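We store sequence with structure; for instance:
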Amino acid sequence: MDNHLTNHDNEREMLKYQNTYRLEAYNPFKIDPVDKIIKTIMITKLEDISYDAAECLNVCQSVATDIREKIKNLNFDRYKIVVNVTIIEKANQSIQSSMGFLWDAKRDNYSTFTYEARTFHACCCVFALYHE
């Protein structure tokens, strides 16, 4: 059996795309369904745990991944989704957080949700950044 390949067999034809000159998304980012997703996942995943510094890293990653996947299923075209989940222990301390943005105010958006449990606070921020 002759198994040698020629260069022609390995080459793939490059597709050429024309510019669409479309500046708006067909399915723009909507906050309401994203708020529901964040709230549902945060409550479901965090209601039965207590604060443990070693475990919370994995919990944050798991929650952020689940939220991102559910939001991607909404098919907001031309948006990059960034999910940040933070868990902070309740230990008689305070925390102050702020966000600053350099973005397109017409197209970019965000959604936040804070969950409070007996031993910790959890905050989720989802950023939808328009990408042409």
